[in-house]
Amino acid sequence: MVQPSTSAYLLGGLLGLFLILPVQMTQTPASMCTPLKTLNNSLSHRRRYMKHNFPINYTIRVHHNEIFKVSSISKMKSYVEGLEDLVLQRLWFQVNQGVLKKIIRVLPERHPSRPYTAELERRFRDLEGVFVQSHPAEVFQQELPETIQDTWDRLTEEPDRVPPSSWRSASPKSLLDNLCHTMHCLFSECFDSTEAQRDYCVVSHRRKGRKKELELRS
Ligand SMILES: *[C@@H]1O[C@H](CO)[C@@H](O)[C@H](O)[C@H]1NC(C)=O
Ligand SMILES: *[C@@H]1O[C@H](CO)[C@@H](O)[C@H](O)[C@H]1NC(C)=O
Q: Which residues belong to the signal peptide in this entry (predicted)?
C-alpha cells in the first residue's frame, strides 16, 4: 500500500555497507535555516487547520514510533550512547514524512485543511532536499545504531505486516505539535532557543514521566 519514497531509499539505503566515517557533531547547516523557518511559519497555523477543521476528538491511526516527541528524543539519547543529532534528524524526516502522508490520506479532496496540509508537505520536502544536499552523501550511508535501525525498520514495514499492538490513535494536531517541538530541539541553531529551551529538549521526559512514548526495544 505504502510505497517507500525516494528519500527512504536515499536515507535508508546502503545499509549493508560497513562504512564508519567520523562525522562532526552536527551543527545545523545555515542553509537549512530558511526552509526551517518557512516550515515553522506554516506550523503556526496548525491549530486552526488541524483542530478546528476536524470533528472533536478526531484521531488517525499511526505507528507507535510515529508518536515522536521531545521525550522520545531524550529517551533515545539515553538508550544510545553518543547518539548523533544527525541520526536523530534523519529519523525525524523519516517519521514526519509518514505522518504528513497519513494526514493527507484522510483528507477528502475538498476538505478545508487540504491546501494547508499539501503546502506543509511541500515545505517539508523542500527542507528535506536542503538537508540532503547540505551533507556529504557518505553520512547517509553510515550504519545506524542498532536501536535506531530497528525503529527505522518498523516505520518502513508494510502496513499489513505491522502487528496490531503497534498501532496508536493520535489527533492530527498532536502529531503536528510533536513535529514542531522536536524540530525546535533537533535544529535548535536555527531557532533562537534560549538555554532554558535547550534544557527542555533534554529533560522534559523526566518531568512529564509519561509512558508509551516511543517503545524502543532495548
Ligand atoms: C516559529 O513560529 C512561532 C509561532 O508558532 C514564532 O513565535 C517563532 O518566532 C518562529 N520562529 C522562527 C525562528 O521563525
Ligand atoms: C472528547 O474526549 C474527551 C476526553 O477523552 C471526552 O471527555 C469528550 O467527551 C470527548 N468529546 C466527544 C464529543 O466525543
A: 1-25
